Amino acid sequence: MIEPGIYKDVMSSFPSGVTVVTTLGPDGGIVGITASAFSALSMDPALVLFCPNYASDTYPILRNSQRFAIHLLAAEQTAEAYAFAGKGKDKASGIDWQMSALGNPLLSNATAIIECELWREYDGGDHAIIVGAVTNLILPDQPVTPMIYHKGKLGALPALT
């Protein structure tokens, strides 16, 4: 049997990007979740995946909405990362966002945004594996420094030369 604490320590040794996945809730408000378990999956068709915890209050809303936006966070977006990692309602209180033409709530200042429609869902132990078909891609006008997650900390990806 794998000891959970050691498993978390080992997995946190792998630096990853940080995303916030947003959608509209049943009341029309923004809901979302912070996820480091994100990946490109396929070029043709264009597919991406993220893995929310089944225990998350946001998971069933994301699944039922059938569409969502995945924000690749910028280093300066720690407020967004922590807000959407928390529990409860009104996670987006004080966070700047606007509605996309496709009906997804979009956060400002991300390094990139991927709008999706739900393509498939698979079981992944205590997490769901949500696969999204890409419907729109958004890049900022100027390059933005991405956020990384490593050993339980959020930070900026240093310039690579």
Automatic annotation (TrEMBL):
What Pfam family is a match for this entry? Flavin_Reduct
The GO terms this record gives for MF are: FMN binding; riboflavin reductase (NADPH) activity
- Name the InterPro entries for this protein: Flavin_Rdtase-like_dom (IPR002563), NADH-dep_flavin_reductase (IPR050268), Split_barrel_FMN-bd (IPR012349)
- The source's domain of life comes to Bacteria
- SUPFAM superfamilies in the cross-refs: FMN-binding split barrel (SSF50475)
Q: Where is the Flavin reductase like domain?
A: 11-156
Q: Which UniProt keywords apply?
A: Oxidoreductase
**Per its UniProt record, what SMART domains does this chain match?**
Flavin_Reduct
UniProt record similarity statement: Belongs to the non-flavoprotein flavin reductase family.
Protein name in UniProt: Flavin reductase
